[in-house]
């Protein structure tokens, strides 16, 4: 599927989450204004200061972009990008991003710079490219979605970031502290590829980002190129073994571990034992409660992501 090229005159409607990101929100806004004003590009900044405002503001941006033949742009971490993408998906509107998070897996995958000023300049010449989106019970995820231990890791990581600042080292330290505590095992039934499988596991993670999968050493990353998603699960293990898995992931060798299983799929249904109706999940770093069973699929409609010209793209490292 191809996307219609942009003329370079379309206005930007920018949803900026001022409550997330590495940098000062006022500075980020000033940078965006300076770049776009200097280029003579029309735009409207639509800042929000909490996650609860994201959905309604994203819908408003979609409406404005539809009325004015414009582009919806999300500025924030992967969770913010995912929330705005939820509103854009299926509208046919082009979608741009200004990454502001700690890891920025989604933007880095497509060579979009993490520096706000450079990323804003790249928007001016970017063209839409169809990219794959994952859905969990109909909700968008761009990088990954998970249940069990992983959502707990994310909740603890956010608490540590609030206390010690946003950095990858703070995230790693938070993970080590979380893994030291005892964790319950999930009893789940998986249905995929015409088969059923029962298992006990501390966590299930479904990935939609080749860069993240490659960095932790999951061989099935190439399944994404075939329009599929990748599931990862861990056998019941103690805290010491979990530390070993973190180390393997740090060394890009997680897929070699005996305790880890991974596979590609087109559709995955996860049923939780004991008739649980509501399940805590993490989607691109944000916590949600969803009804069981959980259904993971690739969206039948791709997202028209604005990708910079080849010469402006950054390395995926």
Explain the overall architecture.
It is a single chain. With 317 residues, the chain is α+β, with helices and mostly antiparallel strands. The protein has two domains: 114 residues, Rossmann fold, CATH 3.40.50.10330; 159 residues, Tumour Suppressor Smad4 (Sandwich). The protein has nine helices and 18 strands. The protein has a six-stranded antiparallel β-sheet. It has a six-stranded antiparallel β-sheet with strand order 13-12-11-8-15-16, covered by helices on one side. Strand 1, helix 1 and strand 2 form a beta-alpha-beta unit. Helix 2 crosses helix 3 and helix 6 packs across helix 7. The two termini are 28 Å apart. GO terms for molecular function: kinase activity. Keywords: Kinase, Transferase. Pfam families: DAGK_cat. It comes from Bordetella genomosp. 2. This is Diacylglycerol kinase.
């Amino acid at each position: 599927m191809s996307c219609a090229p942009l003329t370079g005159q379309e206005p930007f409607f920018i949803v900026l989450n001022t409550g997330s990101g590495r940098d000062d929100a006022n500075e980020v806004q000033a940078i965006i204004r300076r770049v776009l004003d200097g280029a003579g590009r029309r735009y409207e900044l639509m800042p929000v200061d909490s996650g609860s405002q994201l959905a309604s503001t994203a819908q408003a941006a979609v409406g404005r972009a539809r009325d004015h033949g414009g582009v919806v742009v999300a500025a924030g971490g992967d969770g913010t990008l995912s929330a705005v993408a939820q509103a854009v998906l299926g509208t046919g509107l082009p979608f741009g991003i200004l990454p502001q998070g700690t890891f920025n897996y989604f933007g880095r995958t497509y060579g979009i710079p993490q520096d706000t000023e450079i990323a804003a300049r790249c928007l001016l010449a970017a063209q839409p490219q169809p990219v794959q989106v994952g859905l969990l019970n109909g909700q968008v995820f761009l990088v990954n979605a998970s249940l069990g231990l992983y959502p707990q890791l994310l909740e603890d990581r956010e608490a540590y970031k609030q206390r010690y600042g946003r950095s990858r080292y703070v995230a790693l330290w938070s993970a080590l502290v979380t893994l030291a505590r005892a964790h319950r095992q999930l009893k789940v039934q998986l249905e995929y590829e015409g088969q059923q499988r029962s298992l006990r596991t501390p966590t299930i993670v479904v990935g939609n980002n080749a860069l993240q999968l490659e960095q932790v050493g999951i061989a099935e990353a190439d399944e994404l190129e075939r329009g599929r998603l990748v599931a990862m699960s861990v056998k019941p293990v103690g805290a010491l073994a979990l530390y070993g898995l973190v180390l393997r992931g740090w060394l890009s060798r997680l897929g070699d571990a005996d305790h880890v299983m991974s596979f590609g799929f087109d559709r995955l249904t996860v049923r939780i034992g004991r008739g649980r109706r509501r399940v805590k999940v993490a989607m691109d770093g944000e916590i949600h409660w969803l009804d069981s069973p959980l259904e993971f699929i690739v969206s039948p409609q791709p997202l028209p992501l604005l990708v910079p010209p080849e010469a402006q793209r950054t390395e995926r490292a």
